[in-house]
Specification:
Layout lengths: L11 E5 L5 H10 L2 E3 L1 E6 L6 H4 L3 E9 L2 E14 L4 E12 L8 H16 L3 E7 L6 H4 L9 E12 L12 E5 L5 H11 L19 E8 L4 E8 L6 E6 L3 H14 L12 E2 L1 E9 L4 H17 L4 E7 L13 E12 L20
């Protein structure tokens, strides 16, 4: 019988979460930090499932040792067009194990429940996006925690820019950059349709304008009104907040630099431990042709707007190898890498999602 990190043998029982478990799940995430250099927790109050509903269908499972919640995991799935129809992709999310239960069977038991849920939902491929600094997730990747071994599918960069009131940039010649309004809906949709193949996404991932009001967009237009680029950012504060619990390593120096900029009125100071990191995260970023200058200008416009509104960070999410990574502005930033792992559960090999599946890093 497995022994937990805190000593003693654990007898684990697993059940599916119900409507009355929301508060316990929110509290458990707040007690169970993630480590990616900086240590943080995700605050999903007041509705734990609100973020999940934005992404597809889901089932969440809880592992108990006696009356104590030892771990959680969620099976999330949605259909992804792949050029020949669609593939049903299941994502392993919300995997957490209490510190005292690590080394015991809690992770394997909830992941077995996730595996069974994927089977019942007809999932073809199971995937999980794991931060490269998240050593605790290694058992999931190597098939030691209830799922088959996962193989690497893709990597993603999350570039965190400090929202700074920098001097107004010079826009590219013949191009105007501005925040998109409702009347720009056709221009935004056209750019998304034209650039989704470059982003290696299966389709434009969201409607614009966003009826829920959770997105902001910036467009680059030439003098004839033709769109050349679009950047869409998500403000998820209504469904998920990032609370920093501990700064580590180089982040202390980074925070000190931001504090200096804040003293000059150029930025908002990064939050104290326990407070919320206000962040906008990209869900779509595309430019027509090889217009690196347009890509750079779009990010600069978003940074200036975010600084005016008291945001701390603008997070630009791009797949490894995306040429836009080399077009980002030289502004205060840090970069975190995540790897998408996956394994086939059903269907055939020609339904593999590597070429068409686009991990929506903003919503993780």
């Amino acid at each position: 019988m497995a022994r937990a990190a805190g000593g003693g043998d654990l007898v684990i029982r697993v059940r599916e979460a119900g409507p009355g478990d929301g508060r316990a799940l929110v509290d458990f995430l707040l007690r169970t930090p993630l480590r990616a250099g900086t240590e943080f927790v995700l605050d999903r109050s007041p509705d734990f499932t609100a973020l999940l509903r934005l992404r597809g269908e889901s089932r969440t499972f809880l592992a108990y040792a006696g009356s104590a919640l030892a771990g959680t995991a969620t099976a999330l799935w949605h259909d992804v067009p792949n050029g020949r129809g669609s593939v049903r992709v299941g994502e392993v999310v919300d995997l957490r194990v209490a510190e005292w239960a690590r080394g015991g069977p809690a992770a394997a038991r909830v992941l077995r429940a996730v595996h069974d849920a994927f089977g019942a939902a007809g999932v073809d491929w199971a995937v999980s996006l794991i931060g490269d600094r998240n050593a605790a997730a290694a058992p999931l990747v190597h098939g030691k925690a209830g799922l088959p071994a996962l193989r690497r599918l893709a990597r993603y960069a999350s570039v965190h820019f400090i929202a700074c009131r920098l001097p107004a940039p010079r826009w590219p010649s013949g191009i105007a950059i501005r925040e998109a309004a409702r009347g720009d809906a056709a221009a935004v949709r056209d750019l998304m349709e034209e650039t989704f193949a470059e982003r290696r996404a299966s389709r434009p991932p969201l409607p614009w304008p966003d009826p829920a009001g959770m997105h902001r967009a910036w467009v680059a237009l030439d003098t004839s009104g033709r769109p050349w680029g679009v950047l869409i950012l998500w403000d998820g504060v209504g469904v998920r907040r990032i609370r920093v619990t501990r700064y580590r390593g180089v982040d202390h120096l980074f925070r000190a630099g931001v504090a200096l900029a804040a003293g000059l009125g150029l930025a908002a100071p990064l939050p104290a431990p326990g407070d919320v990191l206000r962040l906008w995260a990209s869900r779509w970023f595309g430019v027509r042709g090889d217009r690196r200058d347009v890509a750079r200008a779009l990010v600069q416009a978003a940074l200036r707007c975010a600084a005016r509104e008291g945001l701390h960070v603008v997070q630009i999410n791009l797949r490894e190898g995306d040429p836009l990574l080399g077009a980002l502005p030289l502004a205060p930033r840090s970069c975190y890498w995540s790897t998408l792992y996956g394994c086939q559960l059903g269907g055939s090999d020609d339904r593999a999602p590597e070429a068409t599946y686009h991990a929506d890093v903003a919503l993780v």
